[in-house]
Amino acid sequence: MIERAGEFYQQMRTRRTVRDFADRSIPMQVIEHAIATAGTAPSGANKQPWHFAVTADPQVKAQLRHAAEREEREFYARRATKEWLDALAPLGTDANKPFLETAPVLIGVFMQKSSTDEDGQRYKNYYPMESVGIACGLLIASLHLAGLATLTHTPSPMGFMNEIFARPPNEKPYLLLVVGYPAENCRLPDIERKSSKQILSTVP
Ligand SMILES: Cc1cc2nc3c(=O)[nH]c(=O)nc-3n(C[C@H](O)[C@H](O)[C@H](O)COP(=O)(O)O)c2cc1C
């Protein structure tokens, strides 16, 4: 048990967010397995309030890039506070999102605040935010263990995702996951993770 938990940690600690992707396709079955894994997440009252919309289509990816960059230009120029921009500075991000076209696959993650049953009756979902967050963690872990890189992208706001991914209005765009192989010359920001001591406490 201890060994397995230790091994899983060793595998997961090598995950990094990549922002420079190779233009190389990936097997769609990997994506299907990863999304099935995400669907095993626990959820409030077992409502499973998530949807994963996938595209590998160059035209759809171009549309997503165009819409995301429009919002991001507005974000970097006007909406972001100085504190937010300072926090982003070490990551070297800006309003240009070429990876939305270069990466082979984009997964639009949607959160269902409410859903409709087979009789057309609307019902409420409980803790959708927490549930979808856990599902995304499993999705990212699965893709990482399969040998792929991801970027958790949150263009702000993300309303354009409903139209481009043809999702209904009860679904709130949660994030846009960029999936692929890192570019050959890909560089990563030199950032640190908190130690176990910092994030773990025991009582008493
Ligand atoms: C909810 C969330 C939103 C994020 N949004 C963005 C984003 O829009 N653009 C980006 O470049 N990185 C984004 N990131 C990636 C973080 O910057 C990254 O996870 C963090 O710097 C730690 O680096 P690591 O993932 O390599 O450990 C996001 C991460 C999370 C969890």
CATH topology: NADH Oxidase
Give the biggest beta sheet.
Answer: 4 strands, antiparallel
Cα-based radius of gyration, to the nearest Å:
18 Å
Number of beta-strand segments? 6
> Number of helix segments?
8
Uncertain stretches of 5 or more adjacent residues:
none
Q: What ligands are attached or bound here?
A: flavin mononucleotide
Compute the number of structural domains: 1
Helix content range: 40-55%
Task: Quickly give the CATH architecture.
Answer: 3-Layer(aba) Sandwich
Look at the structure and give the mean pLDDT.
96
Beta-strand content estimate = 15-25%
Distance between the termini: 24 Å
Assigned CATH superfamily: NADH Oxidase
CATH class reads Alpha Beta
SSE order? HHEHHHEEEHEHEH
Arrangement of strands in the largest sheet: 1-2-6-5
Global morphology: globular
| Computed structural class | alpha+beta
